[in-house]
Specification:
This protein has one domain (about 5-130): Non-ribosomal Peptide Synthetase Peptidyl Carrier Protein, Chain A (Orthogonal Bundle), CATH 1.10.1200.10. The protein has 5 helices and 2 strands. It has helices at about 5-20, 40-55, 60-70, 85-90, 115-130; strands at about 75, 80.
Length: about 130
């Protein structure tokens, strides 16, 4: 499945969950800010992605990925991401607005960064991993 095909399927799921029109959904669209998603919508979207693509999305998927890259490192302090965590998050999510990943960024704000292209890449990575399993 190509990224374009993933995007088209994801676009349909986003229309269903968020009630937005297809032309509003672009790869760079931020789900929360641009498309009006709330946390319950992101949960619904995750379930639909799992059903549609046959993959599993973990709660706090991106946080877990960054923590795995920080062996022995500290991810957050008093709810704020550490400098090391911010650096890893920039690498893990190159599609997001990097200017937001600065000291003072809260762990709770991670969902506000997520774009459509972040999900396309996540789905692609999960599909590739599934295809490469013995």
């Amino acid at each position: 499945m190509t990224d374009s095909e993933i995007f088209e399927k994801l676009q349909g799921l986003l229309q269903s969950v968020l009630g937005v029109k297809a032309d509003q959904i672009k790869p760079e669209s931020v789900l929360v800010k641009d498309l009006g998603a709330e946390s319950i919508d992101l949960l619904d979207l995750s379930f639909l992605i799992e059903d549609t693509f046959g993959i599993t999305i973990e709660p706090n998927e991106f946080e877990k990925e960054v923590k795995a890259r920080l062996p022995g490192g500290v991810f957050e302090k008093e709810g704020f991401l550490t400098d090391e965590a911010l650096a890893e998050l920039r690498q893990a999510l190159p599609e997001v607005d990097q200017s937001r990943l600065v000291p003072g960024f809260r762990k709770a704000e991670i969902p506000s960064l997520l774009t459509v292209s972040v999900f396309v890449r996540l789905i692609r990575r999960k599909l590739d991993a599934k295809a490469n399993q013995p």
